[in-house]
Amino acid sequence: MEFQQVNPATGESGTGHPNLSDEALGRALATAHEAFLGWRPTSFDERAALLRKVAGLLRAEQDELAALMALEMGKPLAQGVSEVEKCAWACEFYADQAPIYLADEAVETEATKSYVHFEPLGVVLAIMPWNFPLWQFFRFGAPALMAGNGIVLKHAPNVPECALAMERLFRAAGAAEGLVSNLFVSIEQTGAVIAAPEIAAVTLTGSTRAGRAVASLAGQALKKTVLELGGSDAYIVLDDADIPAAAAACAAGRMVNGGQSCVAAKRWIVVDAVREAFEASVTERLETEVLGDPFDKQTTVGPMARVDLRDELAGQVERSIEAGARLVLGGDVPAQPGAWYPVTLLADVTPGMAAFDEELFGPVAAIVPAKDEADAIRLANQSVYGLGGAVFTADTARGERIAAKELDAGCTFVNTFVRSDPRLPFGGVKESGYGRELGIYGIREFVNAKTVYVA
């Protein structure tokens, strides 16, 4: 079956689900459109009531949902609980903020009255990845629903029960059938869904390759898209940085979710003056990570989500070493079932190596040497990606200047690691995609900004 649980810690198969037939898919899309028509005229108060009920259910079931993520994609339990809480926060945040973000905006013209009115687009197809099985959905879904849209979800094939859990949570909170619905469909069927008249827009979080394919199909159908794609985030460590603090932040930013995050700290670009001290400090920090069973509360890094992804990462490490990178820590694939890969550190990484040019989606960090600030910025921007980035320096004005004006990225942080936040827009530039999630810009992606002019 295409939608199949496989425990990444053991390789054992769990529940599976067949793809929908074309007839069942047609019925599901019709039901979703009918649910949207009923949802569209609801008030912000009615929409907020649903989102707050969902937030309550998320918190009530946080342990069960965290265990489900551990089973399906290997996330350690504590990280799963944190993910569930973040989803609940997003629901409550948009329940509060949507009436403000989508209030009519008056515009002074010659008219008696002129303003911008925001209306929902319709049913949005959400194509979501496995790495944050709940958060990736809710960071789009909470604002989209508060804006009055409906949602059909095409989730990653290895997290089928997480996909069904989201549909179930909304139904349990009182949502009409089809307002939030899961579709078990193939890649070929997904193209038909994008083209279907019931679908108004598409959002995708995934690889750059997938983004190109979806954008092409959506473009042919003249459907709005938001794409959050790959990343190779650069963290610049300058000569005046607090090295232990920078090392701790860089390690945390790299190892969150076992390094399987678009905004993980994938390239640590360290100026020569502090590189030796940084390498020693960050190595000490990485050695404290505990690789193990995601159901063990002591574990900080679980298995990778799939064996094929583990093998791809191992190949990237091997090619980088062959090209001249120095292996500091890890690098050996364990001889055991499951998608295990150790916490790994490469040093002396330069352009032309896989660890610099490609996205490493797993627990592998790369130290890139830089001569000085200007060289570090040049190396940071020498990437096809532009999702996130960070700067570490004792001079916060210096860090802010670099973050705001010098880094080619959608999200830039100073003296801490990059992460998403419901209050701030999230997204990238270049091959990291376009459009924004979260903040006021996220909720306005899937609305019609309608001009109303009264003479």
Question: If you had to describe this structure to a student in words, what would you say it looks like?
Answer:
The protein folds into 2 domains: 3-229 and 432-454, 3-Layer(aba) Sandwich (Aldehyde Dehydrogenase, Chain A, domain 1), CATH 3.40.605.10; 233-421, Aldehyde Dehydrogenase, Chain A, domain 2 (3-Layer(aba) Sandwich). The longest helix has 25 residues, at 77-101. 42% of the residues lie in helices and 21% in strands. The strands form 5 sheets. A 7-stranded mixed β-sheet has the order 12-13-14-11-10-16-17, sandwiched between helices. 53% of the residues are buried. It is globular. Strand 8 (199-205), helix 8 and strand 9 form a beta-alpha-beta unit. Helix 3 (62-73) crosses helix 4 (77-101). The model has no long low-confidence stretch (mean pLDDT 98). The protein is α/β, with parallel strands linked by helices and 455 residues long. The protein is built from 15 helices and 20 strands.
